[in-house]
Amino acid sequence: MARVSQEHLDARRRQILDGAAICFARNGFHATSMQDVLKEVDLSAGAVYRYFSGKEELIGAIVGEVLGSVRAAFEEAARQSPPPPPDELVAAVLGRTLAAREALVVDGRPAFPRLVVQVWTETLRNEELAAVLREGYLSVRAAWGRIVEGYQKAGMMRTDVEPDHVARTMIAAVLGFIAQQSLFGPAPVEVLRDGLRALTSMRDDDAATGGSQLG
């Protein structure tokens, strides 16, 4: 029997993951059956189960892959001195994440933002998936914290704010932007980049006025 190349195995795995992602984005994890996935990828049950034991393993692999690539990008940025500015960094990482999945489409719209929302929904009733997401989130958050420390060390960011607070805020901005795309349609990452750039360029008036103008 001819030996199957690693390239072929990787391509088949990619085909299955992408097909499953489309199914989950279209109908949600709970309403998607393995038969739906088999039909989407046009493969036999044996071919699919060779790689994944079921829906839980599929969605775990999809989530792990995305979070792994995002974490690696931010960890690489954290090693730079200084790290790239936050607006450019976020746009670059999110842009690559979306571009890698731009071929995945549901009802004429990108599937990835819808998939993200579906995953969030499923974590409310799936503790194993919630654990995968939690671990990935914490690793991304830790990487962002190191990036913020790099900004502070380089004098690019005020030092009286906890790095973890900034990290959580940056992650929230990205997740919120993805949620908007799922609800209201695609938007270029430059929208988020420009918004962050404007916010981070605001003057700190406390020093000039002696206090906050709120309250």
From TrEMBL:
Alphabetic keyword roster: DNA-binding
DNA-binding region location: 33-52
Pfam families: TetR_C_6 (PF13977), TetR_N (PF00440)
Organism: Streptomyces osmaniensis
Residues covered by the HTH tetR-type domain: 10-70
Protein name as catalogued: TetR/AcrR family transcriptional regulator
